[in-house]
Amino acid sequence: MKQRTLANTAIGLVLLLAGGSAAAQSLADLRNDAATAGDVTTYGMGWGQQRFAAGKQIDAKNVDKLVPIWNLSLNHSANASTQPLLIDGVLYLTTHDATVAVDAMTGRQKWRVPVELPPDITAYLCCGTQSRGAAVLDGVLYRTTIDARVMAMNAKDGKTLWTAKAADYKQGYSLTLAPLVAGGVLITGISGGEYGARGFINGWDLKTGEKKWHRWTVPAPGEKGSETWAPERYKDGGGPTWLTGTYDPDLDLVYWGVGNGGPWNPATRGGDSLYIGSVLALRPATGEIVWHYQFSPGDPYDYDGTNELVLADLPMAGKKTKALMQANRNGFFYVLDRSNGKLLSAQPFAKKINWASGIDMASGRPIDTPMTATVRKTESMPDFIEVWPSAFGGKNWMPMSFDPTRRVAYFNTVNVGMKIKYVKQERPKQPTWYLGLELGGFVAPEDGQRGSLVAWDPVAGKKLWDVPSKSPNWAGVVSTAGGVLFTGAQTGEFMAFDAASGKKLWQFQTGSGISGLPIVWERGGKQYVTVTSGAATVYGALAGDPELANVSPGSSLWTFALRE
Questions:
Q1: What CATH number corresponds to the domain at position 322?
Q2: Strand, coil or helix: 264
Q3: 368 is catalytic
């Protein structure tokens, strides 16, 4: 026993001297991330992406005493929709053009390594100039780039260890998501759905960057699901996988969402168009699809299935169940049995839904309204139709939080409609928008409240409270055992709310819109909250929201703590 202890100590010292982190030296450390207050080693603050902090130091009574302890410019004006990782007192942050390490206590930059991008990248870029985060294991930091590469870097100094090409960016592919380390494999998705690029998920060797497996999300002829596509449409069928999946190590299943079809026009694709608008349950070692559930068959309105897939054990119908939750862009909140994909609950959370009247619990399929039934079989139409929710969804990508003690989910919603008219469109020869429709603009609700912060009971399938806002919040939510929620506004306010009532308790103006993913952490017996500010969202560019007309760009990193 003594000899083993000495050996382990020696190994630990070697790893630390090599730049490794004692808090993230094994898959077991990643598995325990949600229970480790001093470090945040996974995207989502745990493999199940609950984004919940167990510490109670900051609570509803004292949160109004929060003050910024430091602020760091990120020398960056693109979208800062990213989540930092925290390991042994160092914050690791990705932007589209750099990887940054920051001293968590002082805010001083330790190192910054630029991402070398081709000069013509913007001519081919489909889906956002941003990077949502990183993964880490054994002192190695993993990230993706907007020219569709995957990188491994030494966490000590940012030195590149290997780089792998996931796809050709000149075909409309890009990468903006944080990778996932699961089952000893590094897993990434892909962006490019609006260009019709055929989607996939890859598994990579952590040490070498060698591709271990490749899983197309649109099946070719002869493969399971190919019969749900019109002939030859699979080649440009979309099915992007642009948000990070979740992982259940006990079931050894990774859950990954699949996005829109190419083009959006469903009549040109034919049928359900598997696996767009779905969740796939995969074996991380092989990429084998164990089960799937399709939220939006045929996906007529760009509702995707990529929103975060949150894992929790819930008492569904009085039985403890390994559940998977998603607030889908189509406006319905789903609860599935994550062991087999069985639908357990699907209730509307969006304020206005006119594309479906509900979800048939026997078949799991949406109940089409007459408008949607017509859309599915009409390749072109003479007039615009008004659809609710819009392509922004009843909720967009900004991730929810789930409080396992209260069994409540908290998320930001969008309450906007759209006017569209389907048209015939030939597949572009060069990567460009491939939608098969004309967009006639977005429609604000009559009361002018374009979004809400919502508290949702997933077991009862009902809303507990909501806090409306003139502009939808585009930031992630984090909840704490102290009964406080943190999120941000596109107008720049970082905000705290009472988890029980939704009452706003505190806010601080950060200087630019917030689309980042806050984290809560502890060090030296004190609790801290960190978030990025800097919004340049698609919503801000296209929605015509008057509240955002004078919001300044410019990205920065903020950390807050209670006043001494």
A1: 2.140.10.10
A2: coil
A3: no
